[in-house]
Amino acid sequence: MKRTEKLLVLDIDNTVFNWVEYYVTCMRALFEQVHAITGIAVAILQREAQVIFEAEGTIEYPFLIQEMPSVVEHYAHDVERMLREAVEPGRKAFNAAAQAALVPYAEVIETLATFRQRYANVPVVALTDAPRYVAMWKLNKLGILEYFDAVYGLPDPRIPADPINLKVKVDPEILMKHLQKSSFGFAGRIRVLPDDYEKPGTKGLKTVLMDFDMESHKEDVLWIGDNLRKDVGLGVRLGVHTGWARYGTIIRQEARDQLLLFSPQQNVAKNVALDPQNDQSPQPDFVMDSFKDLLAAIEGTLMKTP
Ligand SMILES: [Mg+2]
């Protein structure tokens, strides 16, 4: 890819939308729906979810219901019936809740549109630790996929199968979207990074810099994320400009507590910036108190004439 003059790289979760509120709202709907259908206690479903998310290496594993031991047992390995009676309604409850809960932070769309107008030649890259498919599903639902030139995510979720009767445990229509690596109509670059490229390692952002031929032009790169230790820290280590989406760290205690009910501790730290800012924290070049501060961050870093 030919070198661009400047490059903007954005984290997604808690940088362009409130991931914690979205996820606890949708997961509550999912658990309650599965509970209503099967009678299995929500607390049991949540504990089983923790184990599955841990094993899959992502709290956003989309084939959760069909992997829960209590659900599998409830349907005695009758895959079709389980998919029809529990998995589909559970998935639909999650998606229905997402209609209202999966929304960008204030002025994200307006700011991205202004950015596009003002800096038509500056590519915008999404760099996330979410599985690539899940990341693009979210950006598409958020209505902002079109503002990105590239999406970098982790490997797509594993397709679950029943080991006893050797059946794939995914509705055929959904399965097709995953097998065909749906890109949601996205025309930009899609890159699936190896699992060990997860932040706070620098390999993911390094790959972005290599792809855009910006390795020796780090002063022309701005990287923005909500996690001071992880996002800002890795940017500082790499020597690019960094913006801290401080607004993304403002999370209601109740939402945080709900997240803990179904996520392994390591995953909470992965998805929520838990460490308060202190003297040892990495120092961002720019602190953002809302997404619209992006324009000032760009003026203050990339567009600053020396
Ligand atoms: Mg984030």
Describe the structure.
45% of the residues lie in helices and 12% in strands. By secondary structure, it is α/β, with parallel strands linked by helices. It has one domain: Rossmann fold (3-Layer(aba) Sandwich). The radius of gyration is 20 Å and the shape is elongated. The protein starts with 6 loop residues before the first strand and ends in a 6-residue tail after the last helix. Bound molecules: magnesium ion.
General form: elongated
Number of beta strands: 9
Q: Report the mean per-residue pLDDT as an integer.
A: 93
Helicity level = 40-55%
- The secondary-structure element order is EHHHHHEHEEEHEHEHEHHEH
Ligands in the model, by name, code or SMILES, are: magnesium ion
| Unreliable sequence segments | none
Structural class: alpha/beta
* Share in β-strands: 5-15%
Features:
306 residues; alpha/beta; Rossmann fold; 45% helix; 12% strand; binds magnesium ion
Outline the fold blueprint:
Blueprint lengths: L6 E4 L8 H20 L3 H15 L12 H6 L4 H23 L6 H11 L5 E8 H11 L7 E5 L6 E2 L4 E2 L3 H8 L9 E4 L10 H9 L9 E5 L2 H11 L2 E5 L7 H10 L2 H7 L14 E3 L5 H7 L6
Parallel strand pairs: 1-2, 1-7, 2-3, 3-6, 7-8, 8-9
Antiparallel strand pairs: 4-5
Helix pairs in contact: 1-4, 1-10
The structure holds magnesium ion.
The site of magnesium ion has 7 residues, from loops.
